[in-house]
Predict the structure.
Amino acid sequence: MLVKIKELTFIYGEGLPWQKKALDNISLSINKGDIYAIMGSTGSGKSTLIQHFNGLLFPTSGTVVVNGIEIKSGVDLKKLRKEVGLVFQFPEQQLFGETVLEDISFGLKKLGLNVLENEERITESLDLVGLEPEKFLNRSPLYLSGGEKRKVALAGVLSMKPSILVLDEPTAGLDPHSRIDIMASLLDYIKKNEATMVIVSNKLDEIANCCNRGLVLHEGFVIFEGSFLDLFQYPDILFRAGLELPFFPRLYHRLKEKDLKLSRIPLTREDFTLGVRKCLASHRLF
Amino acid sequence: MFSFSQVILGQYLPGKTFFHRLDPRSKILSFIIITIGLLGTDKLWVIFTYLASLYFLYYLTELPVKYVIRGLKPMIWLLLITSLLHLLFTPGKTIMNIFFLKITEEGVRQAYFMGGRLITIVGFSLLLTYTTSPLDLTDGIGRLLKPLSFLGLPVQDFTLMMSIAMRFIPILYEEADRITKAQISRGADFGSGNLIEGARNFMPLFIPLLLCIFRRADELALAMEIRGYRSEGKRTRMRELKMKISDYFTLILLILLTVVVYIV
């Protein structure tokens, strides 16, 4: 088990008049190689939860074990942070280097690699996010387009080659093309490095194809944990969490209302086409 | 670990106590009168009386002690350094020699006097900010400064600037906290190394934060312009401040007490 969280409760400003319980009795487990989704509407506790993954927050009660290290004060978290790459929302707002090269190498400097390895990793990570190194390395990150900035920020984290990649809404505020590009780069990274990915999102359309499991948070509580296929069986859960079913599962339920039941919930266009064909064939309509 | 969420300094706590209901102008004036009283006294029992009444006032405002102590924490260094400087560098009758430093009777007296004064003033200023919302506070300051506008000073603009600054403090806190955490995740090491190295380590926080402040300022200026804000012209207020009998009573009482402090 790569990540094991047991009965995690987190309270902001504990003991102060404005204290707020952000997470209540959360338990989850993530295996190596999983692509795990954390879903929920704004303010449900998603971002608070992922900040426990690399020890930016310590549990008020309960236990969080990542890569065999229990997150608590007094533990050497630097080692853990090299393994867990956490990308916050709008990571482009954290760029500060004079050049793309300087910004990406910021994290690498802390890893103690030699110059050659450094260069190799920088080029590799830029390639991975689809930016040509020769064209971008010496440009100021501040004068790039929104999508390019996001890619540079991601490259900065990917270059550190984390074995667990935790992303907080990585495609928020981007145009459709950039969204597709970024998701493809992330999946590519996971495949090449046999890494684990935890992705926070409320756009289920985007993550339905790539994630295998996930949990739904609502006001700090887990209201669902399991596979996506199970989740899409119960649209009420998503509705309660302020989320919407992805397009194809939604079609599945609409068809079901019209007495056209597909054999299983489709997640992709291909799934759907196949399902409809089978269904029509069984009704002798095709 | 360095975190902005640990910093608490004068944050407003909504409530319905007597102090919450006082007019912000009378609270600001009361604070000034108390400060004058504290600076004018050379008797220890007077400072203790102020401290005791401060404790009593905190009790009345129902503020949690833990919260108040956390608010005072950032001031401890200032308090210690001020007291230490007075202790070591006040001339007078020597009572002890430590290497080349002389500790004098007057120095000891000055040290606990300054310490006592400072902690009382900070205590009262925290009481003011805990019980007055930032909006009320700036409204109050604006109204108190209003007479200066007759001299051609831009009091309205100043008040607006102050209220915007106050309004954005929590947002900037959050932003700074987010950037700090993001850079820590990438291996940044805040608060380590010597002075120069330590300052350099903060660059990954300062640059994005500065950019964020400029971006927000730009957006705000644009939003205000779109809504027709102009610097000149007479403003009207949605909420007019009104002094009540309790406000006048508090002010008169405090003035009388300060006069007594100066006389005895």
Remarks:
- Residues 176-193 of chain A form the longest helix (18 residues).
- Residues 233 and 240 of chain A are 14 Å apart (CA to CA).
- The two ends of chain A are 46 Å apart (CA to CA).
